[in-house]
């Protein structure tokens, strides 16, 4: 079967940007209370100043490269930019035209997205902002749907990969949906790169990058985020075979229980649907299978002999 790829160095980068207002609101408080410019604190304004030039550099590396930007907040997710939609109208415009178009479209669509995400509802509890997670599972699903549409098209297509830039903590309630997306990406041979800019490591993204063969990175100095993005994540899949990229020191493979949505070290697994529970149950809440709990009698010393 003939390959549908353009060449080895043509890429389709689907960038997932975390615009959760709960996370960036906490980052804003840290920047205002800090007297000195801390390299571990990044405001949303500076975040865009690092990410947008990086996305522009992807388009400049190869005229056939494509960039798709998906934003996800506390309640919703959606497409905010697609470079393939502007190539036809900018056929006679140089690279600077594409760069300015990306910035204008991303900023305009991002402002509209944040307003719509706010209207969807953040909840009445203000204390939930401290631990609110973003819609990572939904953004991964949107990215995979777009990639599948490109892969199944009749024309030549670039090599797709997903880049997640996340700051919000993981949402244990999204465990099943995120893992389904990870295995779908693995089956489609789509790497998931992860750049975590939050305080804690992301268990979901660690597993996503490990399973799909992507790169996981948590930058130590956020004031140099553009350098991290350009040196690590701008590399196409073919060139990664010849360079040394960061390798994960350790991967947290702990799962989340289906009953309380909490991360657990040990649990009980349904033998029918493989649902995970932190405590024993008489019946599986997922598939309805009934569990038998026989009382095991202690083995006598004579039987042991």
TrEMBL record:
Keyword list (alphabetical) reads: DNA damage, DNA repair, Metal-binding, Nucleus, Transcription, Transcription regulation, Zinc, Zinc-finger
Q: Which GO terms describe its molecular function?
A: zinc ion binding
Q: Which domain of life is it from?
A: Eukaryota
Q: Which InterPro entries match?
A: TFIIH_Tfb4/GTF2H3, vWFA_dom_sf
Q: Which Pfam families match?
A: Tfb4
Localization of this protein: Nucleus
Known function? Component of the general transcription and DNA repair factor IIH (TFIIH) core complex, which is involved in general and transcription-coupled nucleotide excision repair (NER) of damaged DNA and, when complexed to CAK, in RNA transcription by RNA polymerase II. In NER, TFIIH acts by opening DNA around the lesion to allow the excision of the damaged oligonucleotide and its replacement by a new DNA fragment. In transcription, TFIIH has an essential role in transcription initiation.
Task: Name the family the entry cites.
Answer: Belongs to the TFB4 family.
Main location class: nucleus
- Which is a Gene Ontology cellular component entry for this protein? transcription factor TFIIH holo complex
Q: What is this protein called?
A: General transcription and DNA repair factor IIH subunit TFB4
Q: How does it assemble?
A: Component of the 7-subunit TFIIH core complex composed of XPB, XPD, TFB1/GTF2H1, GTF2H2/P44, TFB4/GTF2H3, TFB2/GTF2H4 and TFB5/GTF2H5, which is active in NER. The core complex associates with the 3-subunit CDK-activating kinase (CAK) module composed of CYCH1/cyclin H1, CDKD and MAT1/At4g30820 to form the 10-subunit holoenzyme (holo-TFIIH) active in transcription.
Instruction: Tell me if Ribonucleoprotein is a UniProt keyword of this record.
Output: no
């Amino acid at each position: 079967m003939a390959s549908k790829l353009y060449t080895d160095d043509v890429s389709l980068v689907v960038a997932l940007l975390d615009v959760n207002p709960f996370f960036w609101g906490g980052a804003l408080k840290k920047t205002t209370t800090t007297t000195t410019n801390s390299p571990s604190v990044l405001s949303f304004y500076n975040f865009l100043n690092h990410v947008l030039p990086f996305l522009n550099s992807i388009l400049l590396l190869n005229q056939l490269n494509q960039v798709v930007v998906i934003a996800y907040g506390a309640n919703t997710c959606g497409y905010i930019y697609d470079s393939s939609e502007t190539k036809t109208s900018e056929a006679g415009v140089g690279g600077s035209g594409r760069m300015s178009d990306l910035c204008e479209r991303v900023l305009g669509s991002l402002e509209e997205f944040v307003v719509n995400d706010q209207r969807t509802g953040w909840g009445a509890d203000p204390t939930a902002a401290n631990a609110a997670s973003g819609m990572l599972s939904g953004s991964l699903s949107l990215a995979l749907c777009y990639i599948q549409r490109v892969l199944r098209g009749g024309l030549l297509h670039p090599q797709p990969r997903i880049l997640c830039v996340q700051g919000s903590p993981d949402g244990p309630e999204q465990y099943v949906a995120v893992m389904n997306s990870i295995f779908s990406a693995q089956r489609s041979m789509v790497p998931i790169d992860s750049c975590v800019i939050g305080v804690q490591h992301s268990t979901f993204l660690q597993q996503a990058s490990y399973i799909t063969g992507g790169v996981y990175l948590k930058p130590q100095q956020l004031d140099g985020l553009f350098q991290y993005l350009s040196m690590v994540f701008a590399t196409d899949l073919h060139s990664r075979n010849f360079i040394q990229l960061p390798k994960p020191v350790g991967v947290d493979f702990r799962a989340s229980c289906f009953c309380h949505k909490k991360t657990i070290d040990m649990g009980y697994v349904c033998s029918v649907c493989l649902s995970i529970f932190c405590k024993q149950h008489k019946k599986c809440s997922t598939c309805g299978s009934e569990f038998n709990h026989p009382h095991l009698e202690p083995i006598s010393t004579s039987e042991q002999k």
